[in-house]
Amino acid sequence: MNSPDSPLLIDTHAHLSMLDDHNARFAAQRKTPLPFPGAEALVSGLFAAGFGGIIDIGTEADDLPGRIAAFSRFPRVRFTAGLWPDPPNIAGRQELVPRLEAHIAAAPKGLVAAVGECGLDHHQDLPPGTELDKAGEAELLDMLLDMALRLDLPIIIHSRDAPGETAAALAKHPGVRGVIHCFSYGKTEARTFLDLGYHISFAGNLTYKNAHNLREALTFVPEDRLLLETDSPYLAPGPCRGKPADPGMVAENYFLAAELRRVSPEVLGEQIAVTGEKLFGLVLPPV
Ligand SMILES: [Zn+2]
Predict the structure, then answer these.
(1) Bridge partner residues of 53 (DSSP)
(2) What per-residue confidence (pLDDT) applies to 74?
(3) Least buried of 70, 166, 242, 258, by fewest C-beta within 10 Å?
(4) How far is the CA of 4 from the centre of ligand 1 (A)?
């Protein structure tokens, strides 16, 4: 990706503020840690090498100001603000959703590209004896869908082991646009989300050996609804699996997706850049 002929790459879903901690934990577990220059130096290096853009994703009510302070000096980074559906965010929703909205309102104009990530996750590892408050989780998602409509922002949806419930929630909020990020289902579910007007984004698990359903779904998504992402620092693609993922690794997803869709990586890069720009208002370098 460093050569001038390489495709234009954007990563539509990364958690930049988690990179330092995640790499430090990874290094502590290994005798020979990987060299890691720190998140800021890494992002700086990516853009110096021609990287197209990064959407930095929020998960907590108060994480937006710190992320903006750390990464808004990069003109091709945009930010989202959301509440990941863990038990504390579900339980605190009445207080946390207005707080999140206040942070979005206070952010410099044009930096916040979407609401999310948020959604339904029925695969959570909860402490024994704890049950997920599914009704509360659904209400939290409803509140954030309402917010996205009110603020006229797209929404980034996380959905795990809950395709029907997710589709039902989105169907209740026509007029909201957005993306099903880190798509983890198959062709049938892709069809449902596309029919609801949503984009579909694939992460590094696309490259995993057993992910036939994802690769099949990928070939089925129309080009103007398709996005790629890393979900960095999670889900490092095939050759890098097991390591913390950084946004540069999205290149692996582009190369595999291009092969599966029988287009060149350059063409796919331009398509996704245009789609990302339309959905999120990313400022892109001239192609
Ligand atoms: Zn994420």
Answers:
(1) 10
(2) 94
(3) 242
(4) 29
